[in-house]
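Section 4.2 – Deliverable D4.2 (structural model, holo form)

The reporting period included a commitment to supply a predicted holo structure for the target in complex with zinc ion. Inputs used:
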Amino acid sequence: MAVDIGPELYEAIQADFKAGVNMNIGIQKIMKKAMKGKATQADMSNLSNLFGREASKALKRSLVLAELPNETLYWNIAESTIQPLLVKAWENVNHYATIQQSFADEKSGIAIKITEGLNPTERARQVMNMAVNCATQEELDNALTDPTITAVRKFYDDFQKENMRLRNDLGLETTVVRVYDGRGLHKGETPCNWCISREGAYSYQDAISNGVFERHPGCGCMIEYHTSKGVDVQTDWTTNTWESRR
Ligand SMILES: [Zn+2]
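Output (structure tokens):
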């Protein structure tokens, strides 16, 4: 049984992450914009991407195979390093996404509970599964780059998806719009048909059945959802009762 060096490693990782976030001008700019109520969903998408990049950097700096017991990233070490850092990134994403959403709702006169996105455990496990099986540092660094950044980006997708579902369930008209990042695959040499096929505007149900909230590692598509206010909602179809929601 390897010595548990996880807690010590995590201390360094989370300190690196914190310092990275504090020194990242792009992150600080968006945070300030959010606090002033001026941030957009596109800003939040960029913010989750930047949080993902800082998380990736912090993990790569400390998770060095040559320095680990038996030059192996054991599951227990991944569990006490990758998992809590991704939970931290999830908290950051949800914190600012909630601020952005409440300002936007206030502006459009919508008063609906805002909910957090899906629990981050499963997305963290997917990254950990990729990281623990790595035989070389290059492989490990790869697992800690695109899959890690994309997992954090997905935290914001999950937030949007959850809140859109809630609004849809309440009978509000919701539309999700997905725009292709234009980056393509193989360093931009081939267009990404997987993403192109998901471009467009969808209702909540169509978005779910067409996988509009899904992302592949490295995907930078923009996803936004809108709630129209002032729609008449049929609250009881048996008595044909309608209610104005504003
Ligand atoms: Zn793509």
